[in-house]
């Protein structure tokens, strides 16, 4: 953790340094790791690579940042380490937005999701200077499924032309869907409920403006609803695939 703290430098803002690191990782994936992949899926694969570099590390970093704060709470003052973790995540989302704007500008829903997430993180980090406990806790919940989701996405991208990828996709789908459904369908909504009760009780008045925490809640709830719809469609698709295979075997 001391290594990450070293990024707090007066000469180079951590946000810019982290952003540069994610650019390098993306280009490394695009130009080297996935250079033999189809041009249609290389950008998506490179996006998965920076997501892998962000997701699981963010879970551990955010967890440490929360536990290391003895005054943690929904309206607590952001610690130095919490600010660094927020910068780390902001840099990732900025890089991924850039990726979508360049390669998939028509994917308005995903771009809007990233911009809304950036709004929450940027206002917490640079505007109100409080509430990192809530935002980082939501980050942990969001990124718990990151590793599994990215491996599933990479396997999905190659499953039609690589047999091993098809097997990985089939193997990962049920556990990934289950974990994602639990986090987005139960754990996430429960945490937002606790967060909403706290803020509505006026415990953050004078620290976090009402319009800020209301916008945070709206953004998170919208993301949860969209996530539930997305995973529901995947469950339906999986059911249809398994039913079709069973029908073919019975014939």
- Shape call: globular
Could you list the spans in which at least 5 consecutive residues all have pLDDT below 50?
A: none
Largest sheet: number of strands, sense, barrel closure: none
* Amino- and carboxy-terminal Cα gap: 59 Å
As an assembly, this protein is: single chain
Strand content: under 5%
Helix content: over 70%
How large is the count of helical segments? 9
What is the radius of gyration computed over CA atoms, rounded to a whole number of angstroms? Answer: 20 Å
Q: Give me the count of strands.
A: 0
Mean pLDDT: 92
Q: Give me the secondary-structure category.
A: mainly alpha
Along the chain, the helix and strand elements come as: HHHHHHHHH
Structure, briefly:
This protein is mostly helical. The protein has helices at residues 2-5, 14-33, 42-67, 80-103, 108-128, 132-143, 146-158, 163-200, 210-250. Helix 5 (108-128) runs antiparallel to helix 9, helix 6 (132-143) runs antiparallel to helix 8 (163-200) and helix 8 runs antiparallel to helix 9.
């Amino acid at each position: 953790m001391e290594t990450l703290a070293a990024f707090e430098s007066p000469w180079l803002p951590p946000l810019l340094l982290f952003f540069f690191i994610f650019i390098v990782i993306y280009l490394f994936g695009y130009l080297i790791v996935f250079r033999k992949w189809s041009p249609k899926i290389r950008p998506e694969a490179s996006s998965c690579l920076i997501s892998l570099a962000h997701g699981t590390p963010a879970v551990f970093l955010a967890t440490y940042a929360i536990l290391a704060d003895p005054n943690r709470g929904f309206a607590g003052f952001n610690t130095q380490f919490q600010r660094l973790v927020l910068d780390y995540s902001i840099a990732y989302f900025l890089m991924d937005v850039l990726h979508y704007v360049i390669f998939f500008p028509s994917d308005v829903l995903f771009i809007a999701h990233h911009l809304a997430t950036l709004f929450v993180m940027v206002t917490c980090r640079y505007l109100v200077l409080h509430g990192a406990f809530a935002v980082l806790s939501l980050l942990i919940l969001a990124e718990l499924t990151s590793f599994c989701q990215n491996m599933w996405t990479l396997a999905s991208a190659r499953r039609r032309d690589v047999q091993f990828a098809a097997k990985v996709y089939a193997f990962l789908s049920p556990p990934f869907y289950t974990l994602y459904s639990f986090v987005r369908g139960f754990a996430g909504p429960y945490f937002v409920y606790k967060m909403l009760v706290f803020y509505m009780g006026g415990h953050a008045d004078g620290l976090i403006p009402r319009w800020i925490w209301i916008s945070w809640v709206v953004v998170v709830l919208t993301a949860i609803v969209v996530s539930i719809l997305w995973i529901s469609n995947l469950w339906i698709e999986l059911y249809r695939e398994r039913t079709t295979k069973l029908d073919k075997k019975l014939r």
